[in-house]
Amino acid sequence: MAEPAYTVASDSETTGEGKSSSAFPEIAIGIDIGTSQCSVAIWNGSQVELLKNTRNQKLMRSYVTFKDEIPSGGVSNQLSHEHEMLSGAAIFNMKRLIGRVDTDPVVHASKNLPFLVQTLDIGVRPFIAALVNNVWRSTTPEEVLAIFLVELRIMAEIQLKRPIRNVVLSIPVSLSRFQLTRIERACAMAGLHVLRLMPEPTAVALLYAQQQQQMIHDNMGSGSEKIALVFNMGAGYCDVVVTATAGGVSQIKALAGSATGGEDLLQNMMRHLLPNSEKLFSSHSINEIKSMGLLRVATQDAIHKLSFQESVQIDVDLGNGTRICKVVNREEFEEVNQKIFEKCESVTIQCLHDAKVEIDDLTDVIVVGGCSYIPKIRNLVKSVCKREELYKGMNPLEAAVCGAALEGAVASGISDPFGSLDLLTIQATALGIGIRANGNTLVPIIPRNTTMPARKELIFTTVHDSQTDVLIVVYEGEAEKAEDNHLLGYFKIMGIPPAPKGVPEINVCMDIDASNVLRVLAGVILPGSQQPVVPVMEVRMPTVDDGHGWCAEALHRAYGSTLDVVTVQKKI
Amino acid sequence: MYKTRKLWTPVSTVIRRARPTTCRLTPYSPNSQIQSLPSQLETSSRVPPRYGSHFLANLKISSKTYCSQPAVKIDTTTKRCWNCDAFADGTAPFLYCDFCRSIQPVDFSIDYFQIFGLEKGYEIEVDGLEGKYKDWQKKLHPDLVHSKSEKEREYAAEQSARVIDAYRTLSKPLSRAIYALRLEGVDVDEEQTVSDPELLTEIMEIREAVEEAPDSHTLNQIQSEMKEKLEESSNSFANAYQSRNFDEAVTCIQRMTYYQRASEEITKKL
């Protein structure tokens, strides 16, 4: 919906250096909201540039403090994150918590963070609160994220001397569409318009594509197709993609991801150092939070050091009479976190398998993200890909935000005289989408790793004689049992003329456009009729709001199998 | 099954045209296109049965909006760009105007083989497809036309989707075979019940073998057998297609369908 004035400005591709003030304001900024750290970058007319805050930092801690009347985040706040954490007033890890219900294991794993995360295990949103003047002040991950994004926006606006509206945000692969709507909502609350939500490793893949193009330009590389595996692991998530790039065009061959990250390594380590920590900190009093915070900071510090040295001395007084004094070596760290590393390995293997790419065909293996400094992580990716060397030439902590900024420029229609923005990423779906059918199973209609835009359909039928209504419940995910997936929405098709079971043909069509918008269409026809017997329904998903876990259970309790559908069996 | 498809497929084409394609946050309002669905469906039910996923092939009949001309084969030299009125140079399929860089409306007289600059046929060089596919996407992908008019963004969405479909169809032997036959006016129903008694017996035997397979080694063995047979029937399809023996070609496709499915089933079990 470009304004006519803008259209004129961007259509004249002869504006030269691209630095003219009329073309500049349109460029969307790239934001990488990390679980632990955050950064902003923009295409400055000739290259990607990371923006710095007033303390000259390019990477800012992702947290918000509710100490004063006006909450403040890690962008502008002068006080150290470590200190804030001890007071219970700082909320962080919002990217892990956003859009999750209180039955989610990731939420449960967040209960010993130094602020309040309470669960009732009934499928509603968890109760999250910061301790302000000895009172728990409730908040939501959306609110925290929005406060943080406002700070980022203001920082960028001051530096770029113009209003910022359009953004490209990098996101974890494994987030459900419901979670993405929460992120979009947070952006809207912060006055930002999301041009694209880009899975983090695909942003890295875009940066890789640009670097390859650059090499051809400098006569250093060949123009042939290059296949790369990108492994990206931060504090919250572990994501992998396989990309095939040629001539600046990247086809995402497969994506895989898991909510497994540095935070899990940290918690396992804390549990290792203080085995009954959960019990000790169960009441979340100010003193407990302080102890929890101290243990957290000390453990985090130790893990960082273990990336560069074989062993580390931990000596921390938790202030409650407990003092931990221990030497931990790298082997111990790896043993404590064996399950996490196994998970990372299986995500990588699955991605390679889904991409149908032989490891010999990989041109490069790229490992980025905060956890890429951990020797075990680098080694496990190397060993899965049977490589001696990993790709060099990317800053592991800045790759994702640079990719997001490139996409921001490309999606804003900016072109570069040297062809540096001659880029395109053809995305694929990260999670399968289907409906509940055949009892309680998820029948995928658009499988994961389908090239977008995508459209697929499947035919279902009724399970009861004279069944007049059917319930179409849409889920996203890979689990076989429907309720183990993310509920996206549901709707009823009503008024089907009475017919024996198995006779009405219920056609469910799913459509994802290039902007990743999902629509579900459903229509019913009876044999002998050429037209749908009821008007076709078109529903934009997700439709569910909060408490969707609860919702699925309530649906099941209220309707049982009365509105079920089954697939029409393929004849072999 | 056909009824559903021929009835259904245009429905999806309608929404592709009806929806906003630019940004995620554009509020979506069900517009007049949706209300006009029944008539779209009615019109489209006259379309001869087609292979399911090639929904776009039906568009020329259902969408009167921008195909004012009858769907007859037009000589490429007479094609002109809707935007700058330049003539197509005729060296490449006219999906995109090289003069003003605007994307052209979908022209269904251009088949998938032509899109990839290939002679119509079953035996093609699959390796070259991906590069060509990417070249097209670089010109046609909806991501790249944000600043263009709504009309052109619609063209981008449709052209890009059609090229993805073309690439998907031609890169796999089975779908390529079915498509090649369809261009000859022969429609194959993948779901059709197998009537060839010889194949039926074989299916029963293989199914039994898979069910009774004691270990993954045996399953692997059966799978490589399936792949071999798939290869064989693919070759016989090529011959049948070449000699225009379409009845035989259809039988080959049935065999290919079955071997592929069996192979997929085994992969699931492994």
Automatic annotation (TrEMBL), chain A:
Where are stretches of biased composition, namely Polar residues?
9-21
The Swiss-Prot or TrEMBL record annotates one GO molecular function as:
ATP-dependent protein folding chaperone
Q: Which InterPro entries match?
A: ATPase_NBD, HSP70_peptide-bd_sf, Hsp_70_fam
Q: Map out region (Disordered) in residue numbers.
A: 1-21
Annotated SUPFAM superfamilies: Actin-like ATPase domain (SSF53067), Heat shock protein 70kD (HSP70), peptide-binding domain (SSF100920)
> Keywords of this protein's UniProt record, alphabetized?
ATP-binding, Nucleotide-binding, Stress response
Q: Which Gene3D superfamilies match?
A: 3.30.30.30, 3.30.420.40, Actin, Chain A, domain 4, Substrate Binding Domain Of DNAk, Chain A, domain 1
Q: Work out whether the entry's keyword set contains Nucleotide-binding.
A: yes
Family listed: Belongs to the heat shock protein 70 family.
Q: Which PANTHER family match?
A: HEAT SHOCK PROTEIN 70KDA
Name recorded for this polypeptide: Heat shock 70 kDa protein 8
Organism from which the protein derives? Durio zibethinus (Durian)
List the taxonomic lineage: Eukaryota, Viridiplantae, Streptophyta, Embryophyta, Tracheophyta
Q: Which gene encodes it?
A: LOC111280131
TrEMBL record, chain B:
Q: What is the lineage of its organism?
A: Eukaryota, Viridiplantae, Streptophyta, Embryophyta, Tracheophyta
- Keyword tags: Chaperone, Cytoplasm, Mitochondrion
Gene name of the encoded protein: LOC111311635
PANTHER family for the chain: IRON-SULFUR CLUSTER CO-CHAPERONE PROTEIN HSCB
Task: Please give the SMART domains that the UniProt record associates with this protein.
Answer: DnaJ (SM00271)
Task: Tell me which family the UniProt entry assigns to this protein.
Answer: Belongs to the HscB family.
Q: Name one Pfam family in it.
A: HSCB_C
The organism encoding this protein is Durio zibethinus (Durian)
Query: Has the keyword Cytoplasm been applied to this entry?
Result: yes
**Domain J: residue ranges:** 111-183
Which residue ranges traverse the bilayer?
A: none
UniProt entry tagged with the keyword Cytoplasm = yes
Predominant localisation class: cytoplasm
Cellular localization per UniProt:
Cytoplasm; Mitochondrion
Question: What domain of life does the UniProt record list for this protein's source?
Answer: Eukaryota
Q: Which GO terms describe its molecular function?
A: ATPase activator activity; protein-folding chaperone binding
Name of the protein described by the UniProt record: Iron-sulfur cluster co-chaperone protein HscB, mitochondrial
